[in-house]
Amino acid sequence: MKIIILGAGQVGRTAAYHLSREADNEVTVVDHDDEVLRELQDRLDIRTVLGNAGSPAVLAAAGGAAADMLVALTNSDEVNMVACQVAWTLYRTPTKIARIRSSDYLGLDRFFGEAGAFAVDVPISPEQLVVDYVERLIRYPGALQVVDFADGRVRLVGVRAVQGSPLVGSELRSLREHIPKTDVRVAAIYRNGRSIIPDGDTVVEPNDEVFFVAATEDIKTMMKELRRNEDPVKRVLIAGGGHIGLRLAQALEVKNQVKLIERDPRRARRAAELLRSATVLTGDAADQTLLVEENIDDMDVFCAVTNAEEANILSSLLARKLGAKKVMALINRPAYAEMMENDRIDVAISPQTITIGSLLAHVRRGDVVKVHSLRRGAAEAIEAIVHGDPRTSRVVGRTIEQVPLPSGTSISAVVRGAEVIMAHHDTRLEEGDHVILFLTDRRHVEAVEKLFQKQQSFF
Questions:
Q1: Structure confidence by residue, pLDDT tens digits, 32-51
Q2: Which residues of 143-156 are buried (b: 16+ CB within 10 A; e: fewer)?
Q3: 186-235: pLDDT as tens digits
Q4: Is the same domain home to 408 and 329?
Q5: Residue 288 placed within a domain
Q6: Burial code of 191-228, b = ≥16 C-beta within 10 A, e = fewer?
Q7: Residue 84 structural domain
Q8: Are 122 and 96 in contact (CB under 8 A)?
Q9: pLDDT band for position 373 (50/70/90)?
Q10: Residue where a domain stops, chosen among 349, 371, 388
Q11: Pair 350, 331: CB distance under 8 Å
Q12: What one-character DSSP code corresponds to residue 352?
């Protein structure tokens, strides 16, 4: 697939990294910063073009006439939308994805789609994706990661097991005795950074990172098996009143007591005007006196989402020291995130990792409708739709134990119509099933894609 990426910012660079690693992808990156492009070209097997992302001439130089996909990820909504329109007008580019930050555009469907004013097939908002991600973590206290499948009916949850919890020290097969009316599948366990393919004999140990799949209504029941019962989050302090901080405050203030700290007076005033019940404070979230005055030790969650990751790290560490029960920080650089997460910061939020799944779902072959990048891109969770019949499909009519899955890959759940089925070895796959897969090693993605591709004739 020939892919043009417009914009080499943090999201654009991450997209280039992941998409260029996919088999058969030819990636070209366009940006106005030649130094950034040289650095990218030194690290990745890609083409680069220097110039204005919205220019027809630059798009032509980037290979627009032969492109299968345009991914516009500059910091300007208007440039992204215009670039998609130019690609459609000149070249009828089949798939056009645009980063849209402004909620004014996202709230009006008539801007996008077949009948939209702009030729944007898929508008994506990294900021909104981050807000949704953090909100899910807050709704499930103790979770490290929560991702949706099948329109929210199934979720995959990552939890760190705590000593003294019912399942810790027990074999996984004992789950049926612990929660007999709940069907859950443990997809993977990470112990000391290494993956373990779970079976009934696997014993859960303290500090294991356990990923499980369950129907949404059963998640809290399973979490109680791995962690002590945790009270719902009531009080949240957000550091940063930009796109992410403001949207997060708006999403949470309906059910939570929210305080927002923003150091820029103008931005703080705007946040105060737009928020209904949240308290907005002008100041530095790394100011110890301010945090103490605002009762940081009484906060259930402290979430730092400013544009400066160093400030997010410092304020989160200070909030932890002063008694915040759980701290989250938006951290762009993977090296920083790995150093800080778990021991000092409960959750390191990576906008790039959260966003990349939205892009990968449109690149993957077979009918892959959702992709979630996990563990900083090392693992993936995929939702694929089964098509065909026994003559044209490698999976239709087969039981799960008969499907030749690559090493480290498991099928955790099947969604059939309105029914959520937790996968057993004898579960038979049918046309139209939505299958939830977990891959501990994303290098096997291509093999999984081929399994779900419809063939002219399998025999």
A1: 999 999 999 999 999 999 99
A2: bbbbbbbbeebbbb
A3: 999 999 888 888 989 999 999 999 999 999 999 999 999 999 878 899 99
A4: no
A5: yes
A6: eeeebbebeeebebeeebbbbbbbbbebbbebbbbbbe
A7: 2-124
A8: yes
A9: confident
A10: 349
A11: yes
A12: H
